[in-house]
Design a protein that fits this description.
Length: about 250
């Protein structure tokens, strides 16, 4: 990272964005890192190769190609091609081609071509201002975030995965046999329980995620969207009431 007069850049981007952009162009865009700054108010700045870290309560409008890490309570509007990592309580409006990793309790509104990776639940997620596509609950948001495959004849059924032992039984008890074509109901399912573990079949959106818990044989299942619950702090698995074994 290049050592520069950070205060000068911060002042320019908030008061004289045109001069900030011209200065950045003359520098051929070396990486500029801004840390631990609060209450930023940035508009109309080209933030290519600008990285904000541990910044809070900021507002960024009409900014392109920036990168934000460990920022919280921020608001971003009309930002293009940005990357956000580990940001909390943020709100993004009309941002295009962005990538969000480990962000939680945020809102992404009227955004296009977004990529979510290992994120906590995003509420009020809308695709190109089509309000009817916004999820109504955590389960619908989970389906959107992971792009779960839907049954061709019943879109309410989505495909989830589990790692089992070689004999098709579960690792935890060894008593549940996941036989192909069989519908199985969890014996200890509790619809009122909102915890992460227990009280349901544990399934994952991909087999790779399922392997994080037990390394074994891959099994896939059709699960009705009303038959599983999401634990927002961990999106690598859900708890299911009932499953239909595919293979």
């Amino acid at each position: 990272m290049k050592t520069v007069d950070i205060k000068k850049y911060i002042d320019l981007m908030q008061t004289e964005p045109e001069q900030f952009n011209k200065l950045r162009e003359t520098e051929a865009y070396p990486v500029l890192e801004i840390k631990n700054v609060h209450k930023l108010n940035v508009k109309n700045c080209n933030l290519k190769n600008v990285v904000f870290k541990s910044c809070g309560s900021g507002q960024w409008k009409s900014c392109g190609s920036g990168q934000w890490e460990w920022c919280y309570s921020g608001q971003w509007e009309w930002c293009d091609s940005g990357q956000w990592k580990s940001c909390d309580s943020g709100q993004w409006k009309s941002c295009d081609s962005g990538q969000w990793e480990w962000c939680y309790y945020g809102q992404i509104i009227t955004s296009g071509r977004i990529h979510l990776k290992s994120s906590y639940l995003i509420t009020s997620w809308c695709d190109n201002i089509k309000k009817e596509k916004c999820p109504k609950n955590d389960t619908e948001a989970y389906v959107l975030i992971h792009g779960l495959e839907k049954h061709p004849d019943n879109p309410k059924l989505v495909k989830l995965y589990k790692s089992v032992k070689a004999d098709d039984t579960d690792f935890y008890t060894g008593k549940i046999h996941y036989e192909k074509g069989k519908e199985i109901i969890c014996p200890d399912w509790d619809s009122k329980y909102n915890g992460e573990c227990g009280q349901g079949f544990h399934l994952s959106p991909t087999f790779e995620m399922a392997q994080q818990y037990n390394v074994g044989k891959c099994k896939s299942f059709w699960v009705h969207v009303n038959d599983f619950k999401v634990y927002p702090p961990n999106l690598t698995k859900v708890r299911a009431k009932k499953v239909l074994v595919i293979d």
